Amino acid sequence: MPLLNATLVPAPDQVVVRLTGDADLSTAPFVADVLTQAGSLGTRQVVVDLGSARFWDCSGLHALARFTRELTVAGRACRIVGAQRETRRLIGMANLAGDLQLDGLPTAPARRVTSTGRTPLREPVAVADGLVAAGHR
């Protein structure tokens, strides 16, 4: 079972929820409970810091999206900070980008240049039995 910790840091106008550790289906109820606790403090804004969290699936992110929608309906806001590139990618794959207010732009990896001086459109990620699978960024 993954280990996920949460810290709530209340302030007069916002509360910060700092998630640390690994999140997956087994920790989604914990994420939902922590967010409910943060929401019950009644601040105008909840800031969720994901900088030290790693998401192995979308369960916790769906809980975060539900919470964000509930706050929005109540005239409040939820802002996501510190989301790592992998987390942002998972958010995009789960089609949750429109439901979450992410701070900043995702950090793009350095572009690889081939010996011809061109940036490849795809990078090979695996070779098996002579077949090459291409990955997309």
UniProtKB/TrEMBL annotation:
User: What CDD domains does the record tag this protein with?
Assistant: STAS_anti-anti-sigma_factors
Q: Name one Pfam family in it.
A: STAS
Organism superkingdom: Bacteria
All copies of domain STAS, residue ranges: 4-96
Q: Which SUPFAM superfamilies match?
A: SpoIIaa-like
Q: What does the record give under GO molecular function?
A: anti-sigma factor antagonist activity
PROSITE patterns listed in its UniProt record: STAS
User: What name goes with this protein?
Assistant: Anti-anti-sigma factor
Q: What is the lineage of its organism?
A: Bacteria, Bacillati, Actinomycetota, Actinomycetes, Geodermatophilales
